[in-house]
Amino acid sequence: MSHRPRPTWSRSGSWSRGWSGARLRARPRSGARPGSTLRVRVKAAWAAFGLALLAACGGGGLSVVDASRSAGSYRWVLPADFPIPRVPDDNPLTEAKAELGRHLFYDPRLSGNGTQACASCHHQDKAFTDGRIVPRGSTGEAHPRNAQGLANAVYHPTLTWANPSLLSLEAQLQVPLFGDNPVEMGVNEQNQATVLARLRADPLYTNLFAAAFPGVADPIGWPRITQAIASFQRTLISADSRYDRYLQGRESLTAQEQRGLQLFFGEKAECFHCHSGHNFNDQVVHASTRVLDLPFHNTGLYNIGNTGDFPEPNQGLFEFTNNPADRGRFRAPSLRNVEVTAPYMHDGSVPTLEAVLDHYAAGGRLITTGPFAGDGRLHPNKSDLISRIDLNAQEKADLVAFLKTLTDENFLRDPRFANPFAAR
Ligand code: HEC
Ligand code: HEC
Q: Which residue, 39, 146, 200, 384, has most beta carbons within 10 Å?
């Protein structure tokens, strides 16, 4: 029944089963409506890989954090309110692996027909979204959902819009690589040897793989490609927006931005309940996490014919749990860099931030004509936190102005995250 792309590749073994360290149980959070929140216990083995080494980057309270105890360990620079990211024990994060991963992320030779890279749908200048309503895969198939940003993806315990079973970056990237519903990069049993041969033929990769996986004979294969791309993604930290600098006392916000901030974090607009914490969302995992809550929410975007239906195939968490209470529930996205990630929502159906604010102010979306007509405001699964808000035009503009303070210009241009082939 599910229309989700699923990994069809099995040779990569445990990747497709997600993390070894956690068990996923469907258990409603006490006080929450059934089906809204899954809870996961994380084994202690995950914990505390990172080590805060020094707080030496000037007045802002930034720390340099060592990602692993391996030689050549990658170092993040994190503000005080950013927890230490989690790195799986079996894929220590090193500079060399991230650098190999960056090349693979930008390399169209990694797709079956040689036309599409991860970066084709994840553009750095758009915080790794693509500006389209929905993208097309390498063979032209439309994806049913909007391409997500990758900033701070290392902190997401579940990946993609509503899939509670994709629990690691290693597992997630099997979907665009090998998935056939829809075909994205289109690697399959017939062409996978050709794809690897393309990489083996380039001396650049001989060197990059040797540096990333020293002492490993013949490292060019799917497990190591997977580890390297996941490693690159763990370096994509966005923590230097004007809002971050404001928190650190390094920059001020305008009066309008401060009014928007008050609204965002206040009980009138209620945004912060779901877009909270350092990453402006409510599903977060880090090195010290022991128990995870995995909430998914229905924000009243659709209610086709007032039957509770969403446009096929995007029924949200329901596709995985078959629980009618989960219809239309999605993971709240991080709002970092949201200024550059339009269009919005899981299906790209809201074109601008102003339109997002209209949606929330109305307490859901009323669609009056066409195949999706229905009153989202009356959806039976709609979150109790979404209801009509009395926002005047000035207050909506204030909220939009605040959201734009979350843009991190340095992240959007950081040469460590940029296309390495463009410079050659
Ligand atoms: C054809 C366009 C396309 C390509 C190619 C593509 N992606 Fe994506 N990506 C998407 C879409 C669409 C989503 C949302 C998927 C969903 O909800 O099912 C997504 C989601 C993700 C996510 C989840 C982010 C989050 O917040 O949970 C990650 C991570 C990701 N992609 C990484 C990659 C990597 C790595 C590659 C290359 C191996 C890649 N993508 C290739 C379109 C693409
Ligand atoms: C009940 C939890 C909840 C509350 C409260 C909430 N949001 Fe959201 N928000 C979500 C979810 C879930 C989505 C994704 C919905 C979807 O795609 O169907 C979302 C999507 C968004 C998006 C689109 C982001 C993107 O990348 O597509 C923006 C912008 C946003 N919310 C801003 C706000 C603002 C501003 C407020 C306060 C007025 C707010 N949200 C209140 C849960 C919430």
A: 146
